[in-house]
Amino acid sequence: SVDNQAPSDPNSVTQQFLSTAALVFVQENADGTVSLVSQRTGEQAKLLATNKTAIRVLDQQPTQGQYAVSVLESGADNLYLVDVRSGTSVGPINNGWGTIVAGDFSPDGSLVLVEAATNEQVQFFSIDRQGSSLGQLNFSQ
């Protein structure tokens, strides 16, 4: 859910990212959890994800206002695709991985390539903007 709430303490901001759509930042909460917040010019801040163990922005499409975000929940990293213009997100997305190593948007922003690890085995997944898995990528030597 998205709530309107300004950051309670500007010193609690641990990461921030600027796009043409909004300022996006990770804020540490008093209880040790973190929240993902966006704020558009002239508007109140919106909570995009709150009270999570860890949040890491993997990549952004600044001109489109989209972010690929890793959120640690119940011991596993889940992928969320966040659109700060609309204040919506798609997720959680998890194709059986435990840890997200990296995530990158394609140049046109239509796909996210996720590098993830399960039992120390690294795998690559292609995810579209709607959160549908387009498959696991296999490499042979």
Question: Would you write up a description of this structure?
Answer:
The chain is 0% helix and 60% strand. It is mostly beta strands. The chain is globular. The model is unreliable at 1-7 (pLDDT under 50).
How far the N terminus sits from the C terminus, by CA atoms, comes to 45 Å
Strand content of the residues, in percent?
A: over 45%
Overall 3D geometry?
A: globular
Query: Helix and strand string, N-terminal first?
Result: EEEEEEEEEEEEE
Number of helices: 0
Brief overview:
By secondary structure, the protein is mainly β. The protein is built from no helices and 13 strands. The radius of gyration is 15 Å and the shape is globular.
Record the SSE blueprint.
Elements: E1 3-4, E2 13-18, E3 23-28, E4 34-39, E5 46-52, E6 54-61, E7 66-73, E8 76-83, E9 88-93, E10 99-105, E11 111-118, E12 121-128, E13 133-137
Antiparallel strand pairs: 1-5, 2-3, 3-4, 4-5, 6-7, 7-8, 8-9, 10-11, 11-12, 12-13
